Amino acid sequence: MEHYTIATVAEESPDFRRVLWTGEHTQLVVMTIPPGGEIGEEIHEGVDQILTFVSGVGEAVVSGQKRKVAAGDLVVVPAGRKHNFLNTGENPLILYTVYGPPEHADQAVHATKEQADELEEAGKDEPPASSDAS
To answer: Which CATH number fits domain 6-122: 2.40.30.10, 2.60.120.10, 2.40.240.20, 3.30.980.40?
Structure first.
Protein backbone atom coordinates (compact mmCIF):
# COMPACT_ATOMS: atom_id res chain seq x y z
CA MET A 1 0.00 0.00 0.00
CA GLU A 2 1.24 3.46 -0.88
CA HIS A 3 0.29 6.07 1.72
CA TYR A 4 1.24 9.74 1.90
CA THR A 5 0.38 12.65 4.12
CA ILE A 6 0.46 14.48 0.83
CA ALA A 7 0.49 18.11 1.99
CA THR A 8 3.41 17.37 4.30
CA VAL A 9 5.32 15.41 1.65
CA ALA A 10 4.76 18.21 -0.88
CA GLU A 11 5.85 20.95 1.53
CA GLU A 12 9.00 19.02 2.53
CA SER A 13 10.18 18.54 -1.06
CA PRO A 14 12.62 21.24 -2.18
CA ASP A 15 12.58 19.98 -5.77
CA PHE A 16 10.83 21.58 -8.72
CA ARG A 17 9.41 18.16 -9.61
CA ARG A 18 9.49 14.83 -7.75
CA VAL A 19 7.60 11.76 -8.96
CA LEU A 20 6.27 9.96 -5.88
CA TRP A 21 4.42 7.09 -7.49
CA THR A 22 3.81 5.74 -10.98
CA GLY A 23 1.08 3.27 -11.82
CA GLU A 24 -0.07 1.87 -15.13
CA HIS A 25 -2.78 4.53 -15.57
CA THR A 26 -1.81 7.44 -13.28
CA GLN A 27 1.16 9.17 -11.71
CA LEU A 28 1.52 11.24 -8.51
CA VAL A 29 3.99 14.14 -8.57
CA VAL A 30 4.82 16.94 -6.10
CA MET A 31 6.09 20.29 -7.32
CA THR A 32 7.63 23.39 -5.78
CA ILE A 33 7.60 26.54 -7.91
CA PRO A 34 9.88 29.27 -6.55
CA PRO A 35 8.72 32.89 -6.20
CA GLY A 36 8.55 34.44 -9.66
CA GLY A 37 8.80 30.98 -11.26
CA GLU A 38 6.42 29.00 -13.40
CA ILE A 39 5.82 25.49 -14.68
CA GLY A 40 6.09 26.78 -18.24
CA GLU A 41 3.46 26.85 -20.94
CA GLU A 42 2.82 23.33 -22.19
CA ILE A 43 0.30 20.94 -23.70
CA HIS A 44 0.00 17.27 -22.74
CA GLU A 45 -1.50 15.38 -25.66
CA GLY A 46 -3.46 12.37 -24.39
CA VAL A 47 -2.74 13.14 -20.71
CA ASP A 48 -5.21 14.65 -18.23
CA GLN A 49 -3.78 16.50 -15.22
CA ILE A 50 -5.30 17.40 -11.86
CA LEU A 51 -3.35 19.89 -9.71
CA THR A 52 -4.06 20.52 -6.01
CA PHE A 53 -2.37 23.49 -4.34
CA VAL A 54 -0.93 23.02 -0.85
CA SER A 55 0.60 26.43 -0.07
CA GLY A 56 1.55 29.71 -1.67
CA VAL A 57 -0.35 31.78 -4.22
CA GLY A 58 -0.26 31.82 -7.96
CA GLU A 59 -2.06 32.06 -11.23
CA ALA A 60 -3.48 29.24 -13.32
CA VAL A 61 -3.75 29.76 -17.08
CA VAL A 62 -5.70 27.05 -18.93
CA SER A 63 -6.81 27.51 -22.54
CA GLY A 64 -6.33 31.28 -22.17
CA GLN A 65 -8.50 31.53 -19.04
CA LYS A 66 -6.76 32.92 -15.93
CA ARG A 67 -7.61 32.34 -12.30
CA LYS A 68 -5.83 32.97 -9.01
CA VAL A 69 -4.93 29.84 -7.05
CA ALA A 70 -4.06 29.26 -3.39
CA ALA A 71 -3.93 26.47 -0.81
CA GLY A 72 -6.92 24.15 -1.13
CA ASP A 73 -7.62 24.97 -4.77
CA LEU A 74 -7.76 22.24 -7.43
CA VAL A 75 -7.43 22.81 -11.18
CA VAL A 76 -8.25 20.25 -13.88
CA VAL A 77 -6.35 20.40 -17.17
CA PRO A 78 -7.93 18.13 -19.79
CA ALA A 79 -5.61 16.52 -22.34
CA GLY A 80 -4.65 18.77 -25.22
CA ARG A 81 -5.21 22.06 -23.37
CA LYS A 82 -2.45 24.69 -23.28
CA HIS A 83 -1.66 25.55 -19.66
CA ASN A 84 0.79 27.21 -17.29
CA PHE A 85 0.98 27.82 -13.55
CA LEU A 86 2.87 30.81 -12.18
CA ASN A 87 3.98 31.68 -8.67
CA THR A 88 2.82 35.24 -7.99
CA GLY A 89 3.68 35.27 -4.28
CA GLU A 90 6.71 35.75 -2.07
CA ASN A 91 6.84 32.11 -0.93
CA PRO A 92 7.10 28.86 -2.92
CA LEU A 93 3.94 27.67 -4.67
CA ILE A 94 3.61 24.04 -3.60
CA LEU A 95 1.30 21.53 -5.20
CA TYR A 96 0.74 17.92 -6.02
CA THR A 97 -0.54 16.72 -9.33
CA VAL A 98 -1.96 13.53 -10.77
CA TYR A 99 -1.32 12.71 -14.42
CA GLY A 100 -3.38 10.12 -16.27
CA PRO A 101 -1.64 8.34 -17.90
CA PRO A 102 1.86 8.98 -16.47
CA GLU A 103 3.76 11.91 -18.00
CA HIS A 104 7.26 11.61 -16.47
CA ALA A 105 9.90 8.96 -15.86
CA ASP A 106 9.21 6.78 -12.82
CA GLN A 107 10.93 8.16 -9.68
CA ALA A 108 12.19 11.23 -11.58
CA VAL A 109 13.56 14.04 -9.43
CA HIS A 110 14.25 17.42 -11.03
CA ALA A 111 15.80 19.94 -8.65
CA THR A 112 15.05 22.91 -10.93
CA LYS A 113 12.86 23.80 -13.89
CA GLU A 114 16.01 24.16 -15.97
CA GLN A 115 17.07 20.60 -15.14
CA ALA A 116 13.55 19.34 -15.90
CA ASP A 117 13.54 21.12 -19.28
CA GLU A 118 17.00 19.77 -20.19
CA LEU A 119 16.03 16.18 -19.37
CA GLU A 120 12.76 16.46 -21.27
CA GLU A 121 14.51 17.90 -24.35
CA ALA A 122 17.12 15.11 -24.18
CA GLY A 123 14.38 12.46 -24.07
CA LYS A 124 15.42 11.38 -20.56
CA ASP A 125 12.08 12.04 -18.85
CA GLU A 126 9.84 9.61 -20.69
CA PRO A 127 7.04 7.79 -18.85
CA PRO A 128 7.23 4.00 -18.59
CA ALA A 129 5.76 2.16 -21.56
CA SER A 130 2.22 1.03 -20.84
CA SER A 131 1.64 -2.71 -20.94
CA ASP A 132 -1.57 -2.15 -22.91
CA ALA A 133 -0.02 0.17 -25.52
CA SER A 134 -0.81 -0.76 -29.09
So the answer is: 2.60.120.10
